Amino acid sequence: MLDKRLMKLPGIKKIMVMLAGLAVLQALFIIGQAISLSLAITGLWSGKNLSEVIKWMGTFAASFVGRQLIELVRDRMLDKFAYSSAQQIRTTLLNKIFKLGPEVVQQVGTGNITTMTLDGIDQVENYIKLILSKVMNMMLIPWFVLATVFVFDWESGLVLTLVFPLIIIFMIILGYAAKSKADNQYAKFEMLSNHFIDSLRGISVLKYFGLSKKYADSIYTTSEQFRKATMSTIKVAILSTFALDFFTTLSIAVVAVLLGLRLINEKIFLFPALSILILTPEYFQPVRNFSSDYHATLDGKNAMTAIYNIIDNPGNKSESVKINPWTEQSQLTINHLDFNYQDSFGVKNLKLNIQGYNKVGIIGMSGSGKTTLINLLSGFFTPERSDIQIDNSNLESLNQADWQKQLIYMPQTPYVFHKTIRENVAFYHPNASDKDVRLAIEAVGLTSFVDELPDHLDTVLGEGSRALSGGQAQRIALARALIDSGRKIMLFDEPTAHLDIETEIDLKDKMLPMMDQRLVFFATHRLHWMKDMDYILVMKHGELVEQGTLEQLQQNNGPFVELTNAMIGGEADV
Amino acid sequence: MFKNDTWVKPYLKQYKRPLMLAVFLGIIAVACEVGLMFNSGYLISKSASLPINILLVYVPIVLTRTFGIGRPVFRYMERLVSHNWVLKMTSNLRRRLYVALEPQAVFFNQKYRTGDILGLLSEDINHIQNLYLRVIFPAIIGGSLYVVVVILTGFFSIFFGLSMLVLFGFVVFVIPMWSVAANGARHAQAKVMKNNLYGNLTDNVLGISDWIFSQRGQDYVELHEKSEAELHEVRDNILKFKRRRDFLVQIVFGVIVIVALIWTGNSFDGVHGSGMTNWIAAFVLGVFPLINSFEPLSQAAEESSNYQDSIKRFNELPDATKKPTETSELTSPLTIKVDHVDFSYSVESKQILNNLEIKISAGEKLAILGKSGSGKSTLTHLLRGDLIPDEGQVTINDIKTSDLNDEIDQYIGVINQVPYLFNTTIANNLRIGDETASEDKLWDVLERVGLKEMIKRLPKGLDTLVDEAGLRFSGGERHRLSLARILLKDVPIIILDEPTVGLDPITEQGLINTFFNQLDGKTVIWVTHHLQGVDSMDKVIFIEDGQIEMQGTPTQLNDTNQRFRDLKAIDAGF
Questions:
Q1: Residue B114: per-residue pLDDT
Q2: How large is the angle between the packed helices B217-267 and B278-294, nearest 10 degrees?
Q3: Peptide bond into B333 cis (omega under 30)
Q4: Lowest-confidence region among A54-68, A123-137, A411-425, B441-455
Q5: What is the pLDDT of residue A280?
Q6: Cross-chain CB nearest to B210 (options A380, A415, A567)
Q7: Which of A240, A249, A367, A369 is the most exposed place for a label (fewest CB within 10 A)?
Q8: Residue A545 confidence class, pLDDT cut points 50, 70, 90
């Protein structure tokens, strides 16, 4: 019933012992409360004055307050414990995410990562809070109450003992029934419930086709279908709550009637009978509390599983190797490199030897493995088999701090943080001077743009603030890279694919000087860049099918010529 | 929060009957629970007074069983009725939300680029569901119950009735209001903080590769933890208040039990069941079940502030007012005229189009080029009449496009940069173009766009859900499907709004070939960001700063315009 991972939380043993102690104490107060109340009522019933039963009323009040105080103390303790546990899990998770980097983000999705870190952790916190106390109460309090009932009257005790397993069995059976019913309808449910958001997202298409007005009724009809499907599942799903309610109230009724009959036959007195009657609901209360929070705990449990899937991800375990800063004489040799995605091929059999400051173009059709190669070179992906050497160091993968700190990486759509221009540009060097920032901005041709803004360098960029065009975002990213002159290796992944041709030309003028005195890998399908490359790699179906200088490749009349002819000629109807 | 509300309140009135039924069932369920304890208390006391005949306790025995079964049955029914009600309301709410959004459908992608407003709105509907189920219904039931309790107890004694009025008044009104006052603002604050965390974390997860390259990931984790700690401080105060408040509520219940004891002890005289003494246990035990019904009210009231944003967002949506549509039949050939058009999105913002003049004759193929932000997309919206020019007019055969209202879809079709495919079958996605299209017609059109072979190979063919095939549909294929839809619709004018951005040149050229082969004879307005394929156009226009910078047939431009030649040379490669 309790997750194994819960039992590994630091401090859990102590908490469990305290919770057990509090549960026992609370059980005693519950019993005291029932007995004193019965004594007071029996006293009044038998004709005593209020003043004669005042001590029992006092005891009742004291027990009642005691019980609630325990609740208060327990909640306080659990609130604290749950938060500190959740906080530790969150820190571990975040550290892991920011260590594993894009690989895990790509696998899990940005949205899922943020939801997991924020809502997921909250759910875990809630889960820890609920499950520990509810389970402990359910396992301890009923026994104490039942024992008391047995002391007063074994027949009532027997009734209560028999009902309990009955409740559990029914709840399990009905739980399964509801689950299988829900599972059966799951696909239909998904579709019906996503229909609305799907319609909203496609609303412009509907409008363009003149269907949007008419579609309003379809939304209503689908929603109504969803209502009917949901109701038929709910009918079964809440049966388990019904069963719990039913057995609880029915047991109270049965106990009351049996007690009544035996009272008439003078087999039992009013005081024990009344105590039993008051205790009966208390006997069921912990299991009712548990079941009412069951769904919240399920959410928490699922969230916890998802979070631990990331935390337990071993990630790239390649040993850290010392790599010298890249110089004119440095040499990167890849004798062998294999990488596969889960469901498709990636890159195989790669052989490559690059020396010093060279501009290496990577060309190929979409899906030929250009981006995969860049991701392997950046160390975001870890190869399955590899034989890589940089100078004299042997590496398993390029996921090496010494390598990554030399990299400048430029994706198709570089990310601009929701920060000021200064912070964005100085991202790699938070302590860079304003002068350096200005110089970098000048170099990428953004000076007039920045000067026109009212807040200049302090203008906040990114979503919801000052939005940038694709070209401007590229320039900011370039400036970011420029400020760190120690970075001698540049990786470009189709940086101009989304840009209009004139912006591309402007940007090219800014980029080319930056590429001098650096090692550059430039993946693109825009052919004009090839003239500026010292060396070209041609990718096809994940394989490096040809490499050489532009002249060599043009003379070879091989895959490169075939590819470029198709690109220019445009005869292919793919 | 409900002042001037038109999204929540009206539904309470609209479906008054099922709502009243739900409330009635809820009250009956609680009444049965109270009745069970009340009646059991009476039954045991009466039995203990040793009635001569068992028939004297026959009625309480029967009632005990009735109440015992009644409580779960009514509770079950209440849940079904209230869920059904809420889902019914949801269907209406969804339709209404859709209708409110529909007029602006075309601008969604631009206007609400930041954040997922659609997801947010659809989430809001779930929030409103919870508002009904967790706040409004319990509040109505609790309030009604309060009235019943006070009236019934007042019927026995003014003193008792008044004390219940005050004590339960605390639980039903005073403490919930106090909770809202004390914690409402904190909840709102916590929500804002959490939203900020969401935005922040998303921002930084999107930019994760930069954190890795800058090797400052640890810095971010620390920063995030700091914000979390601030949020925790607010939440801690919420919890602290909640623990103390819950304790206080329980103490009030304790006082109610004592008051019930004192009142019954004072007013019901007698010895061993003579007089009214058998009712003592009944009244005292009857109080306990009420605790469960009244206890959650404070928490519910406190959390109601969480729903405020959703209600506000809905009420801020424009009210859908239908413009009277007068249909004007256009007869081909259709000539489009952009006549001295000025346009800016608002008075303050910069002018997008400036005295623009274009004439497009029937069957003409026009390419529009320009940097991003030059007004290309704005022009397409003006052509469709979704935007109205500040000065000048856009006409088809001398009728303003904005006057064509919803008839415009008969004449102009649009293919976007990112064609939306609905999460349904391929056939349904195609039939958006023509709802009555036969299967043969669908295959025919798929053949024309070059997808027939591929879809034939899918096991479920036309009935494949696009989502299942989502991985298989590449960018180019999505555009082909979108073209198929347009072909089914068979409109005379087609706007292609940068449909090939980001595709590799071979895929792009293939797609362009298909587009123009299949759209032969129609007017095509092609917005594009570079020059691949423009040679097959009748006319090319470059827009810059809201005006036409150059125009002519591709041959003319090639012969006379140096800039055009330069761009073309670069675009071609080498």
A1: 41
A2: 160
A3: yes
A4: A411-425
A5: 93
A6: A415
A7: A367
A8: confident
**Segment holding B112, helix H or strand E:** none
Of B347, B330, B317, the closest CA to residue B385 belongs to B330
- Helix/strand/coil for B113: coil
* Across A245-252, average pLDDT: 89
Query: Nearest-CA residue of chain B relative to A343?
Result: B471
Name chain B contacts of A51, Cβ cutoff 8 Å.
none
Model pLDDT, residue B109: 52
Q: HSE-up of A376 (CA within 13 Å, CB side)?
A: 27
Q: Between β-strands B412-415 and B336-343, what pairing exists: parallel, antiparallel or unpaired? A: unpaired
pLDDT recorded at residue A86: 92
State the best of B221, B417, B481 to mutate against chain A, taking most chain A CBs within 10 Å: B221
Collapsing DSSP to helix, strand or coil, A355 comes out as strand
Res. A566: pLDDT tops 80: no
User: With pLDDT > 70 as the criterion, what percentage of chain A qualifies?
Assistant: 94
Question: How crowded is residue A376: how many other Cβ atoms within 10 Å of its Cβ?
Answer: 25
Residue B412, pLDDT score: 87
Dihedral through CA B24, CA B28, CA B34, CA B36, nearest 10?
A: 180
Residue showing tokens 């490559």: A352
Tokens representing A142 are 């009923």
Subunit contact B213:A428, Cβ cutoff 8 A: yes
Q: Chain B residue with minimal CA distance to A59?
A: B258
Q: Do A72 and B268 touch (CB under 8 A)?
A: no
Query: pLDDT value at position B319?
Result: 67
Tokens for B87, please give them.
Answer: 């889902």
CA distance, residue B315 to nearest chain A CA (Å): 18
What is the residue type of B392? G
Q: HSE of B134 in the Cβ direction (CA atoms, 13 Å)?
A: 16
Residue closest to B219 by CA, chosen among B231, B236, B207, B234? B207
Is 50 exceeded by the pLDDT of residue A311? Answer: yes
**Residues in chain B, total:** 574
Interface test with A, best of B44, B415, B420, B541 (most A CBs within 10 A): B44
pLDDT at residue B489, rounded to an integer: 85
CB of A478 less than 8 A from some CB of B: no
- Using an 8 Å CB-CB cutoff, list chain A residues near B279: none
List chain B residues with CB under 8 Å of A216. 95, 98-99, 102
Interface TM-score (ipTM) > 0.85: no
Q: Is A200 on the interface with B (CB under 8 A)?
A: yes
**In this complex, is the C-beta atom of A199 within 8 Å of any C-beta atom belonging to chain B?**
yes
Q: Which pLDDT value is given to residue A456?
A: 79
| Higher-scoring residue by pLDDT: A43, B473 | A43
pLDDT the model gives residue B322? 53
Mind telling me how many Å the CA of B133 is from chain A's nearest CA?
A: 14
Between CA B310 and CA B128 the distance in angstroms is 7
Domains delineated in chain A:
82-311 (1.20.1560.10), 318-406+488-574 (3.40.50.300), 419-484 (no CATH)
CB B301 within 8 A of CB B278: no
Beta strands A407-410 and A489-493 are parallel
Domains and CATH numbers, chain B: 9-316 (1.20.1560.10), 336-572 (3.40.50.300)
Report CB contact under 8 Å: B243, A407: no
**B122, A223: Cβ pair inside 8 Å?**
no
Q: DSSP string covering B363-415, please?
A: T-EEEEE--TTSSHHHHHHHHTTSS--SEEEEEETTEEGGGGGGGGGGTEEEE
CB contact under 8 A, A212 and B514: no
Write out residues in chain B with pLDDT < 70, as ranges.
1-3, 107-119, 273, 319-328, 348-349, 373, 467-472, 574
